[in-house]
Amino acid sequence: MTDFSRILAGGPETTLIPGPSILPDRVRAAMGRSSIDIYSGSLLGVTARCEAGLREVFGTTGEVFIYAANGHGAWDAALSNTLSRGDKILVLQSGRFASGWGEMASAMGLDVEVLPRDWHSAIDLDAVTRRLAADKAHSIRAVLCVQVDTASGVSNDIGALRQAIDNSAHPALLMVDAVASLGTMAFEFDNWTVDVAVSASQKGLMSPAGLGFVAASEQAMEAGKTAGLRTRYWDWQARNTTDHYQKYCGTPPEQLLFGLAEAFDMMAEEGLPSIFKRHEILKQATQAAILAWGCVGATANVTDPKTSHLRSRSSTYRMNWPVKSFRFVVTVVA
Ligand SMILES: *Cc1c(COP(=O)(O)O)cnc(C)c1O
Questions:
Q1: Modified residue N6-(pyridoxal phosphate)lysine is at which positions (predicted)?
Q2: The whole model's pTM is what?
Q3: What is the CA(150)–ligand 1 centre distance, in A?
């Protein structure tokens, strides 16, 4: 350890990464409870609270599913519930995470084509329209992308992507990873006609890792009826029930649900517009501070000023280490 890190190690441990993010005291306190009846009683209200909160942040009145899983589990759930071995899918690269989802799809036996992109720009929407228009036989069954790529710090405009897909009059399902972004910026599942969106508990939703989420459109639910990759644990059709135990395909992760319900109560008190604005202000403050370190080699991945609005609220920067010393003060004036 350097002197610097030995001195700082005396304080409370704080990890500042996109996720797991900081747990508010209220969320931690809500989890410090004994287990309760898993079949009936007040836990049903906790599940209902979590589902209502998810519908609000996803922007949907449709189906949402809660898994005892992380974001990778939600990726698996999205693919296995809608597709069959050998189906072709198109992965829209924009950093690391869409590629990771595509690698999982390959391992599951899907035929994955990647529309390549670098780490500095959002998805090329015209290229999407061209590629889908060229698929006259409609052999591409789904298009996979991320709203925010946590590694490159790039955010994609999902409403504009839906328009690009519609311009090609192609019926592929649109699947969006909102693991890093849900709860920090708008997601409009119904308005953008997204078919499947996935997320997880430990980033914008201020909860511990361990819950994976999926929202599914009617088309996605329909595709699920014949999906050959369906397995019993992830199966939407089996979980789409009022039987509380079956909703989780077994014992619900109770304490994680207590925490998530509390996080949604906190978000309701603050209001989504204020939360989004708070994240935007903190993003701009952080970016301004770090870009000022350009003199010591810091750069944002999205370097083109014309597209700087595409820098996401999870900020990733590259530095030419070692930086010998720095002072970093951000004052946010509300
Ligand atoms: C964190 C993250 C994931 C993976 O989530 P895990 O809970 O670690 O499995 C997937 N996609 C994006 C964009 C992420 O930021």
A1: 203
A2: 0.91
A3: 8
